[in-house]
Structures are given as C-alpha cells and as structure tokens.
Amino acid sequence: MKLYTRTGDQGKTSLVGGRVDKDHLRVEAYGTIDEANSFIGWALALLAGDERFRDLCAELQKIQHELFDCGGDLAIVNGKLPYKVTEAMVTFLEERIDAHVQEAPPLQKFILPGGSKAAAALHMARTVARRAERCIVSLQKAEPINDVVLKYMNRLSDYLFAAARVVNARLGVKDIEYERSAIVFRDKEEKQ
C-alpha cells in the first residue's frame, strides 16, 4: 500500500459525500481533533509502563479511538451515514471528570498549565481540544453536523484538565496557581 495518492496535490481532499478544499471548515475541525489526539498520544508515551497510571492510560486510549469517531462524523457531508459519537461517550467523560476531580487536590484558583511532562502534554491536548471545539462551532453555523461531537469535545477539554491534575497529584507535583487569580472555583455549598 502506498501512503501517497497524489489526489490532494491540487488542494482538494475527499470527505464522505464529496470533495472539498483542504482548508474547508470540516477539514479544519477534524484536523484539529487529530492534533489533540496526537498530544494525547504523547502523554500516553510519557505515562506508559508506570503502574500508577494504568487506569488513566486505558481511558486515554479509549478517548483516542473516540476522537477518530469524532473526526469521522465530521467528515460526513450529507449526514446519510449513521454517526458513531453518542451521548454515552459524553457521559463516560463526565463520570471520569467527576472521579478525577475527587482525586486531585481541591482547586480554588486558576492554575498554570504544566507540572510534570505528562501533565504538560495533557494541557497541550486540552488547549488543542478547545481550538477544535471553536472550529466545530464555526462548522455547525455553516453546515449540519452530529451535534454530539461538539458536546464531546467540550467535555474532553474538561477531562484533560482533570487528568493533568491527577497526573501531577500522583507524581507529587504541585500545580502552580496563577498568582493574580481570584478564587474562581467554589463548592456548590459555598456559592449558596
């Protein structure tokens, strides 16, 4: 099998249901998802083999597969094929976010991205996931999409934030609070 096809040499690419320019909103959206997936792969490479992160590595690998599903759903132009991204995938992320928030130290202020190398990679993935989300919002304004992909990417960035904090906590690396941050995160009881 050859990796190159030469079919994109004129700036076009194939989607499910037609060909578009390589800078089309759909291509930008799923390409940005691919970038986020690559940073998750980097984090996985940094965490691999450390028994403290076996559960997190399994979650991240599951998410990598789901990100391919997100990209595939966004590559469907005519909306006639069944979508792969479901509400159950969003619910899984929510459940894992809640568990990771409970494990990490309490958070009141904004933190700087970083800490350990793996946490920094997860923060990179988080920021790219946010950019992908912005691309999907632009695409959604122009063309029909699987709306669950937008929900998934929104939750994913929260998941990656929580996962980065868990990585630092398990490694004994303290998150660095943004020094001019007000207290922005409060328990529900404190807000009332």
TrEMBL record:
Pfam families: Cob_adeno_trans (PF01923). Residues 3-167 form the Cobalamin adenosyltransferase-like domain. It comes from the Bacteria. One of its GO terms (molecular function) is corrinoid adenosyltransferase activity. SUPFAM superfamilies: Cobalamin adenosyltransferase-like (SSF89028). It catalyses: 2 cob(II)alamin + reduced [electron-transfer flavoprotein] + 2 ATP = 2 adenosylcob(III)alamin + 2 triphosphate + oxidized [electron-transfer flavoprotein] + 3 H(+); 2 cob(II)yrinate a,c diamide + reduced [electron-transfer flavoprotein] + 2 ATP = 2 adenosylcob(III)yrinate a,c-diamide + 2 triphosphate + oxidized [electron-transfer flavoprotein] + 3 H(+). Keywords: ATP-binding, Cobalamin biosynthesis, Nucleotide-binding, Transferase. Transmembrane segments: none annotated. Its EC number is 2.5.1.17. Gene3D superfamilies: Cobalamin adenosyltransferase-like (1.20.1200.10). It is an enzyme of class 2 (transferase). GO terms for biological process: cobalamin biosynthetic process. Pathway: Cofactor biosynthesis; adenosylcobalamin biosynthesis; adenosylcobalamin from cob(II)yrinate a,c-diamide: step 2/7. Belongs to the Cob(I)alamin adenosyltransferase family. Homotrimer. NCBIfam families: PduO_Nterm. This is Corrinoid adenosyltransferase. It comes from Geobacillus thermopakistaniensis (strain MAS1).
